[in-house]
Amino acid sequence: MAADKTKTLADWQSKAALLSFETRAFINGEFVAAVDGNTLTSINPATGSVLAEVTSCDAPDAERATQAARATFDSGVWSRCHPSQRKRVLLRLADLVETHRDELALLDTLDMGKPISSSLGDLAGTVACLRYQAECIDKLYGEVAPTGDSALGLVLREPMGVVAAIVPWNFPLMMTSWKIAPALAAGNSVILKPSEKSPLSALRLAHLAQEAGIPDGVFQVLPGYGHTVGKALALSMQVDCLAFTGSTGVGKQLMQYAGQSNLKRVFLECGGKSPNIVFADCQYLDAVAQSAAEAIFHNQGEVCIAGSRLLVENSIREDFVARVVKAAEHMQPGDPLDPDSFMGAMVDEAQYQRVLDYIRQGKSEGATLTLEGEANHSQGYFLSPTIFDDVTPDMRIGREEIFGPVLSVFGFDSEEQAIALANDSDFGLAAGVWSQDIDRIMRVSRRLQSGQVYVNNWAGIDQTVPFGGVKQSGNGRDKSLHAQEKYCEVKTVWMSLSV
């Protein structure tokens, strides 16, 4: 499902004007207000205008949803239905998402400020994930243990029960699919808590899930804040598993809540400060520089795997950084509804101010400001690319996740120094290696402490390979067969045989 290049800014503006927003929570097959009647305000970060007042759930709503999820799971209407039935329903959902792709893409663009071209790309990933996980349902087998003649050992995979999925605001619908598709495919009941900064597409998805035939109580959506409904789900004795993408700090809190309640499984995909390593032997420097700029400035830098640390061999550093600057100068923010905009608006004022604070910090720490981005808050929250050179590992801009369009450049003189710099981080989500030396590529890739390593590309992955991190970037894996397996319990059945 390629991005639609035929529509203009005016076309998308016309479509946006016709949108209506679902604002109610989806609990046990019904769209309802919160028990206490509270709402949260959804704002378009590109204009500052109010989009909608959205239901803001809290503990009583979580209790109602978890009870419904548990009852539905225990009934077996989804958890014990024939795998082919779950497959048909999820494939139908994928078709409905594809049919409504323009509407869903618009909801994400209006809600969190990303360019419409990027949102359409997310929708392609969403559909691919739903279809892949649906097709895996009847292709994951159990095992027969190698026993003697007197016994038969079976290893069965069974759904875990109730899964609470807490997803971020930067890729609202795509991150949602990475959690709910494998969890539903495995037969679980799923409660989705979208970010309070981008709940609109998740609520529309609830309509499509109901239309696709997912039974009431199997998929529910609770918009609201992390410290209210998110905490309630994390502490619930009815929830068997937490699946989370977001900051490392919140991930640590969720693990504490799991320990305080029922030792529920917790799968985390947290922050990153990903190193992108360019060796002097790499070819096509203009193309590599373009990729390095895209790796950090795509989606306004609001990307967990953003290549925010650029490590360049000193013999080519000055020339290469100049090429990156040239590429970045063409990546200015624009109207998110314009298909030609590479960047859109920051998600809200808090994130906008956070990034500006880091830019001020970089200046005060003594890094060389090679490209100073412009801040524009006349209407929305727009920031253009910023590049710091001569960054050292002790600087905050070189260690902490900024989650904005700010690139930190480090120099190195040897392979060993590059590896040491890359691994000198609390995070381990992604890394990149650019080189023509296959021996070096294999050596460095093996030694990088990272969940995924991109060689001569950035973020070149699809549904067939797992996604996740090490160290304080989290645990567990999204996508691939590994994702569906993690939402299953492994049960051993030992049968004695007469011989």
UniProtKB/TrEMBL annotation:
The keyword Oxidoreductase belongs to this UniProt entry's keyword annotation: yes
Keywords: Oxidoreductase
Positions of the catalytic residues: 269
Annotated Aldehyde dehydrogenase domain residues: 36-493
Protein family per UniProt: Belongs to the aldehyde dehydrogenase family.
PANTHER family documented for this protein: ALDEHYDE DEHYDROGENASE-RELATED
Protein name stated in the entry: Aldehyde dehydrogenase
